[in-house]
Design brief:
Layout lengths: L7 H10 L5 E5 L3 H6 L4 E6 L2 H7 L2 E2 L5 H4 L6 E6 L4 H8 L3 E8 L7 H6 L4 E10 L2 H4 L2 E10 L2
Parallel strand pairs: 1-2, 1-4, 2-3, 4-5
Antiparallel strand pairs: 5-7, 6-7
Length: 150
């Protein structure tokens, strides 16, 4: 079984604190897609056509408005782990019921996303997690933030 490329602590926290979520949307398909399909109805969008075909995600050109604004309904959980994260995150703010997840959230370029979500309960998980073994080795250290609607 693939393990999502989110920090381990964030995965443990999500699974322990989930409020009976049924649906998930994610920007950036991959290991998380196959993992989360065991628990949720998952819809994904991916900018890389070949990767989208491999993972079963919907393909959209990165430059298209459909990549940033694909949401036409609410999802219980939304994961922002693809490209154009700040724009996608801000769009997701109006479309989630329980949790909104921003991966690699320690990066300074995502400060605008954090500011937009300051009205939500924030859980930061700095730690290790699974990552692309072909580019960076098998594990790495970064932050995943889970925003919770309260």
């Amino acid at each position: 079984m693939e393990i999502p490329w989110l920090t381990y602590e964030s995965l443990i926290w999500l699974m322990a604190n989930d409020k009976g979520s049924k649906t998930m949307f994610e920007w950036g398909a991959g290991a998380s897609t196959s993992f989360f399909k065991r628990f949720y109805e998952v819809e994904s969008i991916e900018h890389d056509k070949e990767w989208a075909e491999r993972t079963g995600a919907n393909f959209e050109f990165l430059e298209s408005e459909a990549y940033i604004h694909p949401l036409t309904k609410n999802y219980d959980i939304i994961v922002v782990d693809g490209r154009r994260r700040v724009e996608c995150f801000k769009h997701a703010l109006g479309h989630f019921n329980n949790f909104l997840i921003l991966d690699n959230s320690e990066r300074p370029r995502y400060a605008e996303a954090h500011e937009a979500a300051k009205h939500l309960k924030r859980h930061d998980f700095m730690g290790y997690g699974r990552r692309n073994p072909y580019k960076m080795g098998k594990t790495g250290h970064w932050q995943t933030t889970i925003y919770e609607k309260i």
